[in-house]
Each structure stands twice: as C-alpha cells, then as structure tokens.
Amino acid sequence: MMSCKGWPLAGIIAHPIEAFWRFRLIRFAGGSFVNLGTKLGLTAVFDHFGLALWLNYGLVHSVVVVIAYLFHSKITFREARRSLAGFKRFFFSVLGLKVLDYGIVVATGHAEQLKSAAYMIPYAGRYVGDYILYFIIVFTTLLIFALRYMVFKHIVFKRSLDTELQKAQLKKDSL
Q: In sequence order, which ranges of the chain are alpha helices (DSSP H)?
C-alpha cells in the first residue's frame, strides 16, 4: 500500500491506484505484463547469443514459470505462504498451457511462408517481417492470458481464495 503521509498530493494519486489494484484481474494482468516483458527480453538476449529457437524459448519458459509463480502466489492471489506443493500444483496445472504457447511460437517462428507474407504488408512489411517472432509471442501470450487466469483462479489458488471468502464472511458476521 502506498502512504500519503508527508505529501498531500500523494493521497490524491495513491487512493485511486490502491482501489484499482484491489481487483484480482488487474493484478493478474500486471503479472502477465511482467511475464511478457520477461519473455520478450530473454528471447532477445538468447537470440543475440545465437541459441536455436527451440532451446531459446524453452529456457525462457523455465524462467517465466518461476517468476509467474512467485508473482501470482504473493501478489495476485495473496497466498499466506508459498510451498513446494503449491509450486507443483501451479506447474502441473499450467504445463498444458505452456506446451501450447511453446508449440505455437516455435511452429510459427519457423514458418518461412509466414515471414514472407509479413514482408508483403504495405508500408509496415519490413518491420513486421523483421519482428514477426515478437508479434507471435505477444499474440500467443494474449491468447493464453484468459485461459491461465481461469486455471489459476479455479484450480491452483482456489484454496487461498476460499480462505479469503471465509475471512470476509466472518468479518461481515462480526459487524
């Protein structure tokens, strides 16, 4: 939470941000944005070192899985404690989505026809063709975003959400 002590304008700025940040979907989108930035950045770094796409994107996903668990367990779904069992539940529940993401990016990243078609786009073809891999990563990430949110909310972090609801109900009953 942001503090507005010492600077009156901070309260005017901080309160809407705090209210907006209370929505779980907004926190989830923030974590997904961090994951997307990590994917794009690491893909560029590994590509600079000349790693093959299948290895490059595999390593990227290994890093993203750990970052995603840490972010979503602590910030998005506010679990009281993290555990190896929680990480395993997280990992296995999103494994299918990661395989789907990986498969789409690697399969389309190697499609020379797709790259050739991108170069044909009037005015923007040169840029689209040069960065088609990154466009594919962004598109795939957006596609899987909704599926991941539902899996996390209803499978992975369901127990912590149930606990939050129970606490809210107890608080309501005590008033």
A: 8-21, 24-48, 53-71, 84-109, 112-119, 125-130, 132-151, 158-174
